[in-house]
Every structure is written in structure tokens, then in C-alpha cells.
What we know:
Elements: H1 8-23, H2 26-33, H3 37-51, E1 56-58, E2 63-65, H4 67-95, E3 99-105, H5 107-114, H6 118-124, E4 128-134, E5 148-152, E6 160-164, E7 171-175, H7 177-183, E8 198-200, E9 211-215, E10 218-222, E11 228-230, H8 233-241, E12 247-250, H9 251-259, E13 264-266, E14 277-282, H10 289-299, H11 302-307, E15 311-314, H12 315-319
Parallel strand pairs: 3-4, 3-5, 8-11
Antiparallel strand pairs: 1-2, 5-14, 6-14, 6-15, 7-12, 7-13, 9-10
Amino acid sequence: MKSPLPSAGDFNQLRAFVAVAGSLNFSRAAENLGVSSSALSQMVRALEERVGVSLFNRTTRSVSLTEAGTRLFERVRPAVEELAGALGETSERRAHPAGTVRMHCFRAAADLYLTPILRGFNDAYQQIVLDVTLDDTVVDIVAEGYDVAIRLGEVIDKDLIAVKLGPDLRQIAVASPDYLARYGTPAHPRDLLAHRCIGWRWPGQKTPYKWEFMENGKWFEVAIDGPLISNMKDFGVRAAVDGVGIAFASQQLIAPHLAEGRLVALLESWSAPFPGYYLCYPAQRQMAPPLRAVIDAIRSGPRLRNGGETAATKGAAVAQGLRPRR
């Protein structure tokens, strides 16, 4: 079944017809369209052959519409003008992006890469609405209707484009001096089985995350146990500061507490780096201007601009060889 939509050739013929019918002058219409008079005549003639009737009365001195041409002009002119207006509006939206961009972002990543650019982005793109979900759940961003996400490199779907935003991360076990004075200091990660550990649970998971360490180039897990489990790592770190137990968190989260002596780093020689945060989005031939504006703003944000920490890669390349750390 033939598509009812006009082809590119159909549209060009109708556009040519409307230009001539509006001015009743082939030379002037050709100039307005930026084509030669002969090309314009060929398009009008092709349209007349298609509809099977003459649309213009032509003499060497004048051009006028036939009855059929008049009826067609009345019907077609509004549609052609509407299409031209729609194309112009699309070009304008590209020059001045407007619309909504839906983002899924890990909580800690938002503080590092999103919050610092919000004021400048809002000032520059006042017609763009950034709809952000802050959540550590690993969701299918395409199926859930998100345009872009910021998440750890090892949980990026292979068919996404991924842009590295920062350095690799490390998780370190920490405890307060008070806790260590009361319960002692573990000498090996397996010693944690005898300690009071503060658990963390991935969103959507029923069991706590098993702490991961590296020994002789191989990762191994420790299924810790203790008096407290939470879905918020910063909550667990605050509990560790209060002496509740040993927590396991990223260097960035615990650094202020280490510097002030509120926490002590443990088992560091077993804590190896893993892929940090990436900006990821589906591959697309023509990216919507609002999404392009968001991506460019994050990639040129102050943390990346000052540290030079950007590198674009395919999601498949990012994901290959990475341990599932869930």
C-alpha cells in the first residue's frame, strides 16, 4: 500500500506551484525559491501531469490560474505554509533549545557533576526543563523513558554511549578511633567477619552488598554482618563516626572525616580502584538540541574543565571486562 504522505518530490512540486500561484510570475517565483526558471517550470509541469489537468493559463505576457488551479491553490497554500512554518520553528528550536530532558543520576554523582553546573545552565537555557531522578537503582534508561544518565561505569548497558566524567574510585573500610579501641583493628578483610559492620543495600536488593577487596590481582567478597543496614552510604558513614561499627564507602565520602581524625582508614592495601562515573545516553543520529545542551554543559563543567577528565567512549568498550559489583 502506497504511503498517503507526500514524497520529497511531491512537496517540492506543491511548493513550486504555490510560489507561482501566489505571484503569477514564473521569474519572480523562481527567484524567491532560489531555483532557475526552467527548473521551476519542470516542477509545475510534472505536477500538472500528475493531477491530469492544467493549473495555469500561460501566454507570453501573463500567467493566470485555471479553475482547477484556483481550487488547488486554496486547498494547498495553507498546508504548504504550515509545513514551512514547522520547519522554520524546528530550526529556531535548534538555535534556541527548548523542552524537557529527563535524567537518571546516582546521588553522589549529582553532587560532583550536576549541582555545580545548574545555575549557569539555567541562565543559558531558560527554555529547557531538566527533570532529574536522584536514585542509585540501576534502571534501563531507555525503557524507563530517560534521555541521559550519570552512573558508575560498570553498570552501563553495552549499547549506550558513555563519556567518562572523572577518575576511578576506591571504597575503603573505616571506623572511629573509639570503635577500634573497643573492638580492635582488623588485619585482613576476612577479619571483618568477627566485627560489627554497617551494611549497605543496593536499591531493589533484599540482601546487603558484599564488601569487595583485591588480593593477588583477584577480587573477592566478604559477606559482612552487623547491627545496622541502610540504603544510604552517607548514613552509614555518620554511624561509623559515632562508633556504631565499621563502614565501607568511597574515598570522596570519607575524606573529610579522615582529615579531621573522626575516622581511621582500614585494610587499604586490599582496596583497589574501580571505574568511576560516566555520562551515558542512547546512540542517535540526530540528537535533540536540549539533550545536546545538557551533555555539553556537564562535559564542560568546572570539575572536568579544571581537571581535564573527559574521554568519550562507546558503552560497549566501557563495559567489557568490568566486574559486576552488585
